[in-house]
Amino acid sequence: MGKEEKKEVVKEVKDKIDRASCICFTNYKGLSAPRINELRRTLATKNAEMKVFKNRLILLALKEKSLDKLSRFVNGPMALIFAYDDPLQPLKIISDFRKGDKKPIVNGGYIDGDIFDAQSFVKLASLPSKEEMYKKMIGSLSSPLNKMVYILSGIPMKLLSVLSLLLKQKEE
Asked: Which of 62, 97, 133, 159 fits 67 for a cystine, CB–CB 3.0-4.6 Å?
C-alpha cells in the first residue's frame, strides 16, 4: 500500500469517526468469513457498518482526531463497528451475535464523547433502545390520563343510573 493510499484510508477512518454516534473496537479473531459477513449484513439493517483497517492506520486516525485514549483498544485483528443512528443498536446486535461462541471480542468503544470498556459493553448492550424507552415513557404518561378518563366517564354513568331509578320510582 502506497503513501497516498494510506492517507486515503486514514481520511476514510476519520470521516467515519466524525459521522458515527458509536464506535466499537472488536477483535474478530476466530470468526469465519461467513460469520463476519452475517454480522455485517445484520449491522447494515440498523444503519451501522463493520470495517477492517490496519491497526497502524486506525492509530494514526485516532491521533489526528485527538482520540488517543481509544488507542488502548486497538490490538490484534481489529474491526471497527460504526453506528450512524441509535448508538446502542449495534451493541445489542454484537451481544446477540456473541451468544454462541463469544466472538467477536469487544475491546471497548466510544459513544457520543464517552469511552466504554469491555465490562461496560455488557451493561450498555442490555439497556433498552431509544424506541423502547419512548414507548415506556408514552405508556407511563398516558396511564394516568386513561385512569382519569375512566373515572370521569363513570360519573355520568352513575348519574344516569340514579335518574333511571328515580324515573322508575315516579312511575310506580
From this structure: 62
